[in-house]
């Protein structure tokens, strides 16, 4: 049975560029970017990421919609060809600006406290399009002693988050990962499922047809469960538990997307197969 894909929503980190490629500055390989740009001329190609717009915007010129920081900010682009590139058409924030401003102050304080308690831990801050702090990541992949103390760090952050300011509509959200030595703290409750819904809400009639989702980690699972066609992309030796229908190796992603395009976006699992493909139905 075939399904004609009406839109593609994809994670960025580890999905559109290999997780092990640290020298590429997280850039999408040119061949894959060209294919995605060609596809975007026919159906929407959207990005759903834990990253912020500053780190994503210039790297995904083909995107119709970019949902940043797991849906805390969603940006819709007018892809009309101009000399200056695509323009921002609309922008939506999950929280009101004054609430987000207060949460940002609390996130900064949390970052300082964690830095003092665990010297050398890497802290990544993520901001909205207009500079409001909306999320932080604490990353200890480069610290062997911290990797052995995963639960100590997690419990400390959890206790700190529990004291952060709340209101009747939302509260800060701690995201942990079983397979990776880092965690996220977001200004509001959010996940890839929420970001998926935000993108669908902006796609008008396209949301009435099958949506294909690409991801590589366990935080993609909420989006995998919502997609009509869900494909996990493997680019490292780690084997996170993915709630997807199919798995494909990163090295074959471009080939699959080209096949999908050549087949007029009619998806069937044979498009994933080939002499060097690894395909699983989960």
Short characterization:
Keywords: Hydrolase. The protein has 282 residues and is of the alpha/beta class.
Strand ordering within the main sheet: 6-5-4-3-2-11-12-13-15
Oligomer classification: single chain
Tell me the number of helical segments per DSSP (H or I, 4 or more residues long): 8
> Radius of gyration from the CA trace?
19 Å
CATH superfamily of the largest domain: HAD superfamily/HAD-like
Biggest sheet overview? 9 strands, mixed
At CATH level 3, the topology of the largest domain is Rossmann fold
- H/E element sequence: EEHEHEEEHEEHHEEHEHEEHEE
CATH class of the largest domain: Alpha Beta
Q: What helical percentage do the residues reach?
A: 25-40%
Q: Identify low-pLDDT runs.
A: 275-279
Which whole number gives the mean pLDDT? 87
Query: What's the CATH architecture of the largest domain?
Result: 3-Layer(aba) Sandwich
- The counted number of beta strands is 15
Describe the structure.
The chain is of the alpha/beta class and 282 residues long. The chain has 2 domains: 3-94 and 191-281, HAD superfamily/HAD-like (Rossmann fold, 3-Layer(aba) Sandwich), CATH 3.40.50; 97-186. The protein has helices at residues 30-40, 53-56, 97-117, 144-147, 150-162, 192-202, 221-226, 253-262; strands at 3-4, 7-10, 45-48, 65-68, 73-78, 87-93, 122-127, 133-139, 173-176, 182-186, 211-215, 229-234, 246-249, 266-267, 280-281. The strands form 3 sheets. It has a 9-stranded mixed beta sheet with strand order 6-5-4-3-2-11-12-13-15. Helix 1 (30-40) packs parallel to helix 8 (253-262).
